[in-house]
Amino acid sequence: MKWLYLIVCVFLVTSSCYQPKRDCKAFKNGTFTFTSMINNEEKTTTFVRYDNIEIDFYEGKSDTSSVRWINDCEYIVKKLNPRNIAEEKSIHMKIRTTTDSSYTFEYGIVGETNKSLGTVLKIK
């Protein structure tokens, strides 16, 4: 019984120290896609990021945003030419985990508590 208790304790200690892989620098530049559900329809956005600028391509239109990196894994996105009040709000992005070709992130409007999760695929 003591051995079982010891094994469980060792497992809990080692698994609680696990840090997911985060090679965020690999995603500061490149071409990416992000797919989301909008009105029960799957929509894909392609965007190109050049360190401090991001150009989004969605449904045949393009839009440019500034990117301000807080650290290697967090940044703030702000549209350069907002078309309405909602687009004037900055969005805080936090990369949670990475793979060789994708990252999972948490995002939300700066100053608000609601957060959402998404996954981006790097295509170039």
The helix/strand class is mainly beta
Low-confidence stretches: none
Spatial extent as radius of gyration: 18 Å
Biggest sheet statistics: 8 strands, antiparallel, barrel
Strand order of the largest sheet: 1-2-3-4-5-6-7-8
- Distance from N terminus to C terminus (CA atoms, Å) equals 54 Å
Description of the structure:
With 124 residues, the protein is mainly beta. 12% of the residues lie in helices and 53% in strands. It has one helix at 2-16; strands at residues 29-38, 41-50, 53-58, 61-71, 74-79, 91-98, 102-109, 116-122. The protein has an eight-stranded antiparallel β-barrel with strand order 1-2-3-4-5-6-7-8.
Question: Concise description?
Answer:
Helices cover 12% and strands 53% of the residues. The protein contains one helix and eight strands, in the order H-E-E-E-E-E-E-E-E.
Key terms:
single chain, 124 residues, mainly beta, 8-stranded antiparallel β-barrel, 8 strands
What is this structure's SSE topology?
Layout (H helix, E strand, L loop, with lengths): L1 H15 L12 E10 L2 E10 L2 E6 L2 E11 L2 E6 L11 E8 L3 E8 L6 E7 L2
Antiparallel strand pairs: 1-2, 1-8, 2-3, 3-4, 4-5, 5-6, 6-7, 7-8
